[in-house]
Amino acid sequence: MMLDEFADGIWLANGTEVVAAMGFHYPTRMVVVRLTDGALWVWSPVALSQDIRAAVDAIGPVGYLVAPNHLHHVFLADWAEAYPQAELWAAPGLAEKRGDLAFAGTLGNDPAPPWSDVIEQVVIPGNRITTEVVFYHIPSRTVLFCDLLQQLPVGWFKGWRAIVARLDGMIGLEPSVPKKFRVAFSDKDAARAAVRRILGWSPKAVVVAHGAPVTTDGTAVLERAFAWLRPRK
Ligand SMILES: [Fe+2]
């Protein structure tokens, strides 16, 4: 089964591995949400295979393709070609990077009307690596993080990459913010305000693009993951 029903109206799909800088390979995941009118909202689309396409088509028409940060865009063109009626929505900075794609809009702090009754969103500003948009599926109380939270299983990387990944905090028992992202926050107050809003949603589940989903106690997991961001007393 290509799509796993995570809760009512929300599915997860694992994609192919991608190779990033310095040969680090990552597992990939996308999320599909069925909106009130039946249209599908696709978050961080993975490589489009015939199997994925058939599984998606079986649950509804693709209405929206969403890139939650400016790093997750490599498969968008294939999806846009396969689903020409779907709207593409870009994280801040992506439209400038992908001038070849026609975006319907840039994601901000207010959800666009087509999905605002089931999905909340907040921009996490002030990070020099990327500006990530975090989403919240209200009915299932699931928060969606793209790269800002990661949790790769012990043993995922080998050799020197395993050492670098462990030191960076990419490997662990629950999702955490990799150190490269922590040091890249130039405006911690702005980030803190965004995280406060996420915690205010009281998420039950946490889904990340690279790592296992958390299914219970999501708010506590997020409080631990962002403890380093708290102001020092
Ligand atoms: Fe990523």
From TrEMBL:
This is DUF4336 domain-containing protein. Pfam families: DUF4336. InterPro entries: DUF4336, RibonucZ/Hydroxyglut_hydro. It comes from Maritimibacter alkaliphilus HTCC2654. It comes from the Bacteria.
